[in-house]
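Exercise 7. Given the encoded structure of a 177-residue chain, write a plausible sequence.
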């Protein structure tokens, strides 16, 4: 099935690829998460398209991630601290922007922001909010929010895939930043 999907993705256009990802998600992922991920992708698409350039920079990606989390918050009604995917993606977005402003290279900024996503997801163990408000505090304190953990996992996987792809394309003996 993956080759079928990949064949329909316009991989030479980052904004359109994200747009098609959103459409794919809306077809195959049910529940609230499916809707939130569709919103996430569609907001990223709109942000990437708004820059009006064919080349997408790391700063454009950082802006798209921020626009995405803002859209999910707006339409989903959650904010940081509500035990949702936003508890992973908002820290990731903030870290990505901070690391890029500090002068880190794109790959390093992406990987470090994925660590912030994981830390944000883990921090949901300390939160009593959202759908978990009816679960006893003892149970909530031992389990991070599944949606936040899922978001952190795919974000981290993407960061490591970018780093590993870059490393495999470098001459022997070199390493990615």
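Solution.
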């Amino acid at each position: 099935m993956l080759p079928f999907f990949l064949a329909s993705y316009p991989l030479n256009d980052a904004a359109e690829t994200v747009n098609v990802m959103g459409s794919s998600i809306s077809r195959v992922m049910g529940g609230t998460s499916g809707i939130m991920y569709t919103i996430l992708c569609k907001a990223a698409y709109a942000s990437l398209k708004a820059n009006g350039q064919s080349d997408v920079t790391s700063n454009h990606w950082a802006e798209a991630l921020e626009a995405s989390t803002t859209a999910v918050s707006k339409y989903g009604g959650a904010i940081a601290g509500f035990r949702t995917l936003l508890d992973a993606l908002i820290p990731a977005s903030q870290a990505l922007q901070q690391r890029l402003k500090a002068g880190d290279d794109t790959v390093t900024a992406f990987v470090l922001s994925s660590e912030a996503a994981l830390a944000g997801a883990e921090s949901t163990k300390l939160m009593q909010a959202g759908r978990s408000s009816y679960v006893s505090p003892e149970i909530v304190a031992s389990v991070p929010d599944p949606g936040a953990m899922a978001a952190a996992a795919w974000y981290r996987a993407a960061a490591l895939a970018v780093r590993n792809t870059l490393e495999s394309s470098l001459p022997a003996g070199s390493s990615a930043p």
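Remark. The two ends are 34 Å apart (CA to CA). Students should compare their own answers with the one above.
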